[in-house]
Write a structure and sequence with these properties.
The complex is a heterodimer. Chain A is an all-alpha fold. Chain A is globular, with a radius of gyration of 24 Å. Chain A has helices at about 15-20, 20-50, 70-80, 80-115, 120-130, 135-150, 155-180, 180-190, 195-205, 210-225, 225-230, 240-245, 255-285. Helices cover about 70% and strands about 0% of the residues of chain A. Chain A has two domains: about 5-75, no CATH class; about 75-285, MetI-like fold. By secondary structure, chain B is mainly alpha-helical. Chain B folds into two domains: about 1-70, no CATH class; about 105-300, Orthogonal Bundle (MetI-like fold). Chain B contains 14 helices and two strands. In chain B, strands 1-2 form a two-stranded antiparallel ribbon. The chains are: A mainly alpha, B mainly alpha. At the A-B interface, helix 1, helix 2, helix 4, helix 5 and helix 6 of A face helix 1, helix 2, helix 4, helix 5 and helix 6 of B. Chain A: Pfam families: BPD_transp_1 (PF00528). Chain A: InterPro entries: BP-dep_ABC_trans_perm, MetI-like, MetI-like_sf. Chain A: It comes from Streptosporangium minutum.
């Protein structure tokens, strides 16, 4: 790629690796443009379809614009249970995230820093619970919820989501804490802080971006969960979005106009939050105050 | 359950881990009598306690119950329930390993297993390869870099169930844009989701679309954490780009890679929403992976709780075996835990 230009002595380190010939520049940008188009196209098409009139989705011709209107949006917001579902999803995913992050943060720190009897056990537990197929827990949990009268109740689904969120958050945070140099803890300890004090006063503030990322992940997981939601929330008004949207494109009746409009409404806030935290998505993975 | 065994063996192993010169902070190597280890480790235990308790209650108990159910003939009809004030007692009984024998001797299971493995390997391989490739491209200084990154990350910002619906519409044989484009190009329409082979390709494509951004971001993070001095030094020593990649980038990415590949494999293996929402397992049951099949057993028709639980146990065992093998492989390369 850049060997040709690397010849003469360059003092600035970045230079030689970052200079390119025109050919490789075109190739680089070309590849990225194609990849970006593939990444973007389905989303763009979704938005375009949602803006078509009521039966616009039924056209088999390739038309980008077709009497744009907000008809589908007004129908979704006024004629369906969509607002209810949205509210349910927000509450459930929010609760799951807050509780999950809260419970998992200390564990992430402990398994990142300490080697204690039971360490391996906890690591294995976290790893294995990540693997739990929906199939094995869903039936017992379903029966449990039925027994407790928590079917079609928000707390029921939140509890079910804990089974996913807690191990996941702990695992994620361990990774993040690993990237914070130990010298920082040691400094805290030398200054007379207890392990808890170090965690609370020193590490947690440093790890804030990572916690945001973990929270975001677990929010998205709960937000997009389908299997539990489809079984646990069956009442017309208690569905979450993931379960509810299936109603729009059922076996006997489908209305892609409704579906695309609601998909845009769901994806929009998610994408906005995503863009706000996306800098931390990378930063969080490599966070650390000093390079070790 | 994992914890209790972990704790018993933990002491002995902990010593071994310490002796390995683990990255640990040199906690004393011997866990002495209970009291000493209590005073040394109580804070660590206190810190992991919340997760252990929650996991035991929410996962441990249902797991035990699931395993028990898998040994019975429980179905919707035999399961006890309460209708109004009437309590109907359970009538299912213990049947031993019947469910497992039924499953393992059915051709269906092996079909599903093969497809699940193909699906997982194809998806994770493509995720990783494309993710790493794009990360390498994005890790250079160039114009529009942040714009590209933003666009490439976007599929990740779309919740997976929404992505599933989007793609189902794109694939739609009558109104889908993919067929519209094919027609515009003078080719015939394809019933993407109506034929087993194209349906399989279709779901893999969607999962790749959904999953690459995560890998890309993880890899980009890994790349950026590799100190630039290493490349500098290599360049001074006259290393070719390939040598730099092979001897600096690859080892530098190993820890990130091992984690994301393992997680990716598990997620893909258990990837429920995409297949459930795009093809519903169809046509027939050709795109049904193990997890969606088990779900179908449990919640359609007469709900076969015990059969579904047995499928669940088998899937879990497969994954645990896989993780063991994977960990062993990592350990050979010197990973700590």
């Amino acid at each position: 790629m850049s060997t040709a230009t690397a010849g003469p002595a360059r003092r600035r380190r970045a230079r030689s690796r970052e200079e390119r010939g025109i050919g490789s520049s075109i190739l680089l940008h070309g590849t990225l443009i194609v990849a970006s188009l593939i990444a973007l196209f389905p989303i763009v098409w979704l938005v375009l379809t949602s803006l078509k009139p009521r039966d616009g989705w039924l056209s088999s011709e390739l038309k980008f614009f077709d009497n744009s209107s907000l008809d589908n949006y007004t129908r979704v917001l006024t004629e369906t249970q969509f607002p209810n579902w949205l509210l349910n999803s927000v509450i459930i995913a929010g609760l799951t995230t807050v509780i999950g992050v809260f419970l998992a943060s200390t564990t992430g720190y402990a398994i990142s820093r300490f080697r204690f009897p039971g360490y391996r056990g906890v690591m294995w537990m976290l790893l294995i619970t990540q693997m739990f197929p929906v199939a094995i827990l869903i039936v017992p949990l379903y029966n449990l919820m039925a027994g407790l009268g928590l079917l079609n109740q928000i707390p029921g689904l939140v509890i079910a989501y804990m089974t996913v969120a807690v191990p996941f958050c702990a695992w994620m945070m361990k990774g993040y804490f690993d990237s914070i140099p130990r010298e920082i803890d040691q400094a805290g300890m030398i200054d007379g802080l207890t392990p808890f004090g170090t965690f609370w006063r020193v590490i947690l503030p440093l790890a804030r971006p990572s916690i945001a990322v973990t929270a975001f992940y677990s929010f998205m997981t709960a937000w997009g969960e389908v299997a539990y939601a489809s079984v646990f929330m069956t009442g017309e008004e208690t569905r979450t979005l993931a379960a509810g949207l299936q109603q729009f494109v059922g076996q006997h009746w489908s209305d892609w106009g409704l579906l695309t409009a609601s998909a845009v409404l769901i994806a929009l806030p998610a994408a906005v939050v995503f863009l706000l935290v996306q800098r931390h998505l990378v930063a969080g993975l490599t966070a650390g105050a000093t390079k070790s | 359950m994992a914890t209790s065994t972990g704790r018993v063996t933990g002491t002995a192993r902990d010593r071994a881990a310490g002796a390995d010169g683990a990255r640990g902070r040199g906690r004393p190597k011997k866990a002495g009598p209970v009291r000493r280890s209590m005073s040394q480790h109580w804070y660590a235990w206190a810190m992991v306690a919340p997760v252990v308790v929650v996991t035991a209650a929410l996962i441990g108990w249902p797991l035990v119950r699931g395993v028990y159910l898998s040994l019975t003939d429980a179905t919707e009809a035999t399961m006890g329930r309460t209708i109004g004030v009437n309590v109907i007692p359970s009538t299912y009984g213990f049947t031993g390993l019947d469910n497992y024998v039924d499953i393992l001797t059915s051709g269906l299971f092996w079909d599903k297993l093969i497809w699940t493995v193909v699906w997982t390997v194809a998806c994770v391989g493509l995720h990783y390869g494309l993710g790493l490739g794009l990360a390498l491209l994005l890790n250079r200084k160039m114009r529009l870099r942040s714009v590209y990154r933003l666009m490439l990350i976007l599929p990740w910002a779309i919740p997976s169930f929404v992505a599933a619906f989007i793609w189902r519409y794109l694939y739609n044989s009558d109104y889908g844009v993919i067929n519209a484009m094919l027609k515009a190009a003078g080719l015939g329409a394809v019933g993407w989701l109506d034929d087993p082979t194209t349906a399989k390709l279709a779901v893999i494509a969607v999962n790749v679309w959904v999953g690459v951004p995560f890998m890309m971001v993880a890899m980009l993070g890994g790349l950026q954490s590799i100190p630039g001095e290493l490349y500098e030094a290599a360049e001074v020593d006259g290393a070719t780009p390939w040598q730099r990649f092979r001897h600096i980038t690859v080892p530098g990415l190993r820890i990130v890679s091992s984690t994301v590949v393992l997680l990716g494999t598990i997620w893909t293996f258990n990837m429920f929403p995409l297949i459930f929402l795009i093809t519903g397992g169809g046509p027939g049951s050709s795109t049904e992976i193990l997890v969606t099949y088990a779900y179908r057993e449990a919640f359609t028709g007469i709900r076969n709780y015990s059969g579904s639980a047995a499928w669940g146990v088998i899937i879990l065992l497969l994954l645990v075996v896989m993780a063991l093998v994977y960990r062993r492989a990592l350990r050979k390369q010197g990973e700590v835990w």
